[in-house]
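Here is a tokenized protein:
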Amino acid sequence: MSIPFNRPYLVGRELHNIAQAHANGHLSGDGMFTRSCHAWLEQHVGARKALLTHSCTAALEMAAILLDLQPGDEVIMPSFTFVSTANAFVLRGAVPVFVDIRPDTLNIDEALIEPAITARTRVICVVHYAGVACEMDTIMDIATRHGLKVVEDAAQAIFSSYKGRALGSIGDLAALSFHETKNVIAGEGGALLVNDPTLVERAEMIREKGTNRSKYFRGQVDKYTWVDIGSSYLPSELVAAFLAAQLEQGESITARRLAIWWRYHAWAEPLEARGMLRRPTIPAGCTHNAHMYYILLDGLAQRSAFIERMKAAGISTVFHYVPLHSSPAGLRCARTYGPMPHTDHISDCLVRMPLWIGLEAHQDQVMQAAEKILSTRGVFGAHGWGGCFSTAGKTRNPRNAQLSNAG
């Protein structure tokens, strides 16, 4: 049997909800299930306003419009992220300014943000990689002192937290993803979380094609009209119906994923001690959601060989981002602040292991195959991989040397 990298998980009520949406006679956006998802997100994440979108990309685009970015304005962000993080701001004429990531959490290096600020800087956009929080206290302090807005790209981070606060509830705006590769899914889908109360009313208008339609349905105006720029960012009620079932079971989904994550982590511990790989780091004070389990190998050649040999064993493993600062569009539309050694190194070393509910029955097979490949003579050195892992990406901050046992 081949073992895929990802397999979408059904909790059991998704198709029932979809049939119910049809029976209700409402399949376009903002029906009963959409309102249910909004209420769930506002209650469990703590956002002032949640608005479902057809993708996380759409939520980020809405954030860029809401912040009134003008051509030439700058947005500080990591290069080690998905293209949507940058694209949303480039579409408004803004310039992404890439700074390097931390070698421990693979999140934006908060120590590099303030030196990158210029007179054109308007926004700091953070990405909570693998559902692990950025150093938000420091980042929010920088933003406050410089009068900047903070956007959380929390695409991977539902059910994760930072010092007891849910990710997505800390910045002025945040974006979630419900893509089929995420923990809680709707096939495609996302949400904009609005924490700045001054942005709520306009967010509703932008999402509704620039109209005040939401006010009309609340009885606040007797007709609705075009009042702002915007687009059709709503998902259909079918998507919301599917998502509502997933959100209801979100805590149990997270618990099962965490069990798989911790099995990987325990398996990798002795391999890390032998210098064969490096494991993820979870800072104290952060809880994560087991969005992914990755290992860091010694370089591009070793990473490529590992993925190919796992594929030959019938197991799909994948690498992740090509850094945006080295991409053709990144070279045209953005700039970097300072060197990017950790971003460049990590992008060559990282391998994502399969992680999906149902993998429990196959996880031993995955781990045994991986360990055999890493130990093979002649593939990763005369004595296997042992001892060859580079120190380039090792923890540099004692705060992050401690693994959290929480969530």
